């Protein structure tokens, strides 16, 4: 994703030009995103979708609050500030509460004229913000975008309707399935707001460090385990994952999956019976959904570049690296102790 804090597609490297219709849709989305988005939302994100996502977010935020109480590397003062920040995170779900009005007309014949009109509109819109209060409801992505972000300057998290689609989310899917995919993303983004990145910005988004130095030292000491774990992965012969480059994202992946699992279990607490689908129980569905949401195919050249430049690990290792640190995964699939995905020692940060 384009924000450093997100889980998926990085710009593609293609061997041929993308189809014309795709390029047209991309250009329209860039110039008239919220106008195009209204149609997308009406067709693909109607009904109870927003409420279902909101319920998931509340449960994950609560799971994070519980987890804060358990962390032995974080001191009490820092925890208090973290709790305050947690309460103030703004969540944008699906689409804006009021749609942007594009006050320029389109030329049906001259493409370039429309591009220029769109750019002029955007520059004017940006300049109009100068001197006015910050709008924490403003979206930085259009509704159809398959992406999500956490913005530390606004303490704001956004999930466009585009990523709230199968295989990431569906209002008709079971809770375990939604939590394994979208829930993990929510947890991942939330952790960024409180980790070594997020600790530099307070609850209002001001550049003000709020971690006590001792907490920072303990955090760094703990993260060496994650560096070592991922540095041992070798996706291509002779090319290993750079455990330091990908550290922040790996920590967020592991922590995000744990939060989502805890939240899913909390919401299912007291449920009469466990649901089984296609022979898989709910815990198994949770982990399968997580792994399917990361399913990606790269050409080798691209994978090689990503391994050296991307702050995220390659998807297969985002999955294996995360589940390796969860005993719940090993129990769900009866992995024998000492196997690759059920090691004797695990990393535990968030
Ligand atoms: Zn991230």
Automatic annotation (TrEMBL):
Its cofactor is Zn(2+). CDD domains: M13 (cd08662). Residues 15-96 form the Peptidase M13 N-terminal domain. Residues 1-14 have a biased composition (Low complexity). Keywords: Hydrolase, Metal-binding, Metalloprotease, Protease, Zinc. SUPFAM superfamilies: Metalloproteases ('zincins'), catalytic domain (SSF55486). PROSITE patterns: NEPRILYSIN. The keyword Metal-binding applies. Residues 147-349 form the Peptidase M13 C-terminal domain. Gene3D superfamilies: Collagenase (Catalytic Domain), Neutral endopeptidase , domain2. InterPro entries: MetalloPept_cat_dom_sf, Peptidase_M13, Peptidase_M13_C, Peptidase_M13_dom_2, Peptidase_M13_N. One of its GO terms (molecular function) is metalloendopeptidase activity. GO terms for biological process: protein processing. The keyword Magnesium does not apply. One of its GO terms (cellular component) is plasma membrane. Pfam families: Peptidase_M13, Peptidase_M13_N. Residues 1-20 are annotated as: Disordered. Belongs to the peptidase M13 family. PANTHER family: FI17812P1-RELATED, ZINC METALLOPROTEASE FAMILY M13 NEPRILYSIN-RELATED. This is M13 family metallopeptidase. It comes from Polyangium jinanense.
